[in-house]
Fold this sequence. Notes:
By secondary structure, the chain is an alpha/beta fold. It has helices at 14-23, 40-50, 59-65, 80-89, 104-117, 131-141, 171-174, 177-193, 283-293, 303-322, and strands at 5-10, 30-36, 55-56, 70-73, 93-97, 121-124, 148-156, 197-205, 218-225, 230-236, 242-249, 252-256, 263-265, 268-270, 326-327. The chain is globular, with a radius of gyration of 20 Å.
Amino acid sequence: xxxxxxxxxxGCGRMALGHANSLKSLPELGIIVAGVDPSEDARNNLKTQxxxxxxxxxxxxxxxxxxxxxxxxxxxxxxHRDYTIACLEKGLHTLIEKPMALTLADVDDMIATAETKGKxxxxxxxxxFSTAIRQVKKLLEEKAVGKIRHVIHRRLGxxxxxxxxSWFARQELSGGILPGIGVHSLDVLLWWMDEKAVSVSAIVxxxxxxxxxxxxxxxxxxxxxxxxxILNCAFSFHHQxxxxxxxxxxxxxxxxxxxxxxxxxxxxxxxxxxxxxLAGEPTIHLEFLTAIRNNRSLAQASAxxxxxxxxxxxxxxxxxxxxxxxSVFR
Length: 330
């Protein structure tokens, strides 16, 4: 494909501007040719900060008038399915922000469209590209702790995404805490282990209820995988405490306090190469654009691969509602 790859940026809010900022480092590979957002202020921010002179207030208008090769979609979660399918139907390779969608049926519709149109569909699981996360993956591939038996994970803090005027504060628009932040952690766990979850039991709570915010603020879950490993996870908007991972194998333990903190193997600090990922380096965009350029499959975070993460997310949500253990693949 001729370079640079022409990108339609769908959404001009905070997340979209983060994509635009990363793409500045890859001008030889990709360039934003137009932006889409119903907010004039958001469109003007894209113009002012990143020099994107062509913008539209609707996706339909943009798709009818812009020559592009790819789309990066960063819009509210409830719009993900329809916007992704529209871009794929137009023939655009597509990078969709996480979570892919708010139901597994929608995820499957998106994957089916991508495969029918012969286009790449990538999920924005950016934590797969972080320094420490990739170093843990390397240690696990080297069997540094042997066979994984049990993983304990905690992700605490970050708030519920604003007041009652925020789309994230509405369950039907955002999906809540599991699609919002749990999707990153569960995707990393399944990627580390290179397997699927089999069953999950979850408890969903609202410890600090707000009359105008209807998403939950805490989830605890236990899942089992194909190899009978146990995943023990807690996610909270209410409690503060950062992120922690403990990976226990039959020959050792990996302990990671955060994605940028010290990485311990059997209690000894491990060197994390700075070349793996520098802060702000557009690694996920590099993978997306390089795959398009070279006409190859995605090496990481393809929609087909991330489907198993979404299946676990939705099974956990079902368990949280009915109070029963739920099979992930049925």
